[in-house]
Amino acid sequence: MKAAxxxxxxxxxxxxxxxxxxxxxxxxxxxxxxxSFGIKSGATRGMFFGSLIGIxxxxxxxNMLGPNLLGKGMVGFFASFSSGSVFRWTPLLGxxxxxxxxxxxxxxxxxxxxxxQTMPTSPSSALLILLLQGxxxxxxxxxxxxxxxx
Amino acid sequence: xxxxxxxxxxxxxxxxxxxxxxxxxxGIIAPLRFLGNPLNSLNGVLHSLSDSLSAPxxxxxxxxxxxxxxxxxxxxLVTEQQKYRDLFFENKRLRELLxxxxxxxxxxxxxxxxxxxxxxxxxxxxxGKGARDGIARDMAVxxxxxxxxxxxxxxxxxxxxxxLTDSNFSASVRVQETRKEVILSGTGGARCTLKYVPQEExxxxxxxxxxxxxxxxxxxxxxxGFVSRVSKKSTSIFQEIEVTPFQDPAKxxxxxxxxx
Lengths: 150, 260
Hints:
The structure holds 2 protein chains of 2 kinds. Chain A has 6 helices and no strands. By secondary structure, chain A is mainly α. The longest helix of chain A is centred in the C-terminal third of the chain and has 26 residues, at 91-116. Chain A is globular and about 45 Å long.
């Protein structure tokens, strides 16, 4: 039942990410899912789930496998830091960490594509997209709590 | 932070970089690309679902847009129609003036009304032609409907017309049917009055008045107005007779100036 719920969340994240856009920028909802796994399940499991989501995203996008695998994996891994293992979770920390991790994920994907394929867009517009995606996701960070927080 | 804890991340980094390096040399591998198909189908279903839900609202918006566009179009057409109507009436007026010019032997010129006179207490109009066009003081100003007034002041390119409704205006007129001669004066309002008509004179309501020509100001037989009210008071020597001019001075656009 729990697994079905998780699959539903992941599919919903993919579908929404493909359909919704704000100011011409699609929100990085899969990064939110990876963050959520990381903050609730710990670094290793978070990284594993994040990587899984990332590799599916890479496959669906038709690009090379790896950039999202690495980006989402890192998001899952570092998300656990704000669950109490390094920092004590507060709503503000949730907002800040989801902003930073979303930007990090986007930056990893952008750099990986630039290094191993071609630059997907100009650095200035990439920066704008990353910041917008970070800001959009940051709001959700307020509500995603670690398991040990009531 | 211990190396053991960072190990999974390092492994991930190593694996990803190896994978990407391999793909950049050998081409993209896509073992999970098939996952895109159900997702795309799901997206298609969602799209058609949202489409069917939003269709009525889209239709309303389209109708609203159509409505706004059609309103603007109607407004434009009404304005255009108004313009054509103005042109039609102007054409009609000018044609009448032309007819008058052909009929009237004493024709001097036709002129447009430029403005009302500077003094708001007197019924004076300014016309756009003056001495250069042959206009002189005391010339009669008429329209196809009837007498308008007389020229009182002439400049090179404009002239002042004292309207027959002004209190300083007087003219010798005749009752068209009985040929009785009377003095017509302005009242300062919209109507005129007949002066010095004794109580025993019989002037009926509705009778038409024309200029007599005896005052040596206005040519003969120019229609002036009709008797709209007759009041005989026993205490007064003269009757009070109100005359409504044929030409309403408030509705003037063009006039014709004629000489004596």
